[in-house]
Amino acid sequence: MTLQATDVAPVLSDFTFSFNCLPEVPLDERFAAARAAGFTDVGISIRWLGLWLQDGHDLDEFESLLTSNGLRLTELEAVRVMQEEPDPKLELSAVLADRFRPARLQSVAPYAGTLDDAAARSGAVADQFAQWGVDVVLEPLPFTNMQTPADAVEIITRANRPNLSMCMDVWHLYRMDLDLDHLDALWPYISTVQFNDGTIESLMPDDLLQDCLVNRMVPGQGEFALAELVRQRNIHRPDSTFSIEVISSALQQQDSFTTAQQIADGIEAVLAASR
Fold first, then answer.
1. Residues with Cβ within 8 Å of residue 125, at least 6 apart in sequence
2. Tens of pLDDT along 250-265?
3. What is the rounded CA–CA span in Å between residue 87 and residue 73?
4. N or C: which end of the chain has fewer CB within 10 A?
5. C-beta separation of 96 from 102 below 8 A
6. SS3 sequence, the chain?
7. Do 69 and 38 touch, CB atoms closer than 8 A?
8. pLDDT at 4 over 60
9. How far is CA 239 from CA 75, 188, 214, in A?
10. β partners of residue 193
């Protein structure tokens, strides 16, 4: 179901510019900054878009902004598909999936009940979104009960749906004190590799949620083995997609165009090193 990268050696245009790379700036600014930096795919926050639509906007305007900037909507984030009650954001997610056919709907934990409960609920959402060719991707987070990529795979294998897979954010891999070897047997389940950089040791070990919201770095500016991650992805899962999510309190203080360009330049440098 995922959109394949252009080549086993990925390029910048294979990366989705995720919503959280920028603060909550106007859509025209967000999309123009992404396109000026060389991105062609963007993500949107379902929560934020819902508020924007309530503020007198509509999806025709949203689509016009995408089109005028030469962009595609490829990522919807984030919903919770493993709770007892359906996430209210799923309703808008379904409307967007039907209209724009994005590559993926990102879902995060926690899950309620047992692993079998989590598998049944995520599988049901995957079935719903299969009609639009959308992958439901589970993103493990160290501050939830789906902590590691291996935890996510346990749910994915129990659900056994062709469009239920994983978004592996390298930030959270390192925050669980894991290295790339953890992924050796898990690549078949990883449909999206999410990029950012940072320190190996957490700057806020007692608050990993806050840490991930303020301390991420542009690719190439931290200590993560990103070039090797790309090489491993090229070997094991060359059809996987990429997403870039750099959430940084420092970057969010500066001009959107500057931030987008710095992120693009960082990706280009890592990709060059990976070759």
1. 79, 81, 90, 105, 107, 136
2. 999 999 999 999 999 9
3. 21
4. C
5. yes
6. CCCCCCCCCCCHHHEEECHHHCCCCCHHHHHHHHHHCCCCEEEEEHHHHHHHHHCCCCHHHHHHHHHHCCCEEEEEEEECCCCCCCCCHHHHHHHHHHHHCCCEEEEECCCCCCHHHHHHHHHHHHHHHHCCCCEEEEECCCCCCCCCHHHHHHHHHHHCCCCEEEEEEHHHHHHCCCCHHHHCCCHHHEEEEEECECCCCCCCCCCHHHHHHHECECCCCCCCCHHHHHHHHHHHCCCCEEEECCCECCHHHCCHHHHHHHHHHHHHHHHHHHC
7. no
8. no
9. 16, 10, 31
10. 168, 242
- The set of residues, in sequence order, having a beta carbon less than 8 Å from that of 139 and lying 6+ positions away, is 78, 106, 107, 108, 152, 166, 167, 168, 169, 172, 194
Residue-wise burial string across 126-152, b where 16 or more C-beta atoms lie within 10 A, e elsewhere: bebbbebebbbbbbbbbebebbbbbbb
pLDDT in tens, 133-185: 999 999 999 999 999 999 999 999 999 999 999 999 999 999 999 999 999 99
Measured from the Cβ of residue 222, the count of other Cβ atoms closer than 10 Å reads 18
* Cβ atoms 89, 50 nearer than 8 A: yes
Q: Is the dihedral of CA 82, 84, 88, 90 positive or negative?
A: positive
- 240: amino acid identity, one letter: S
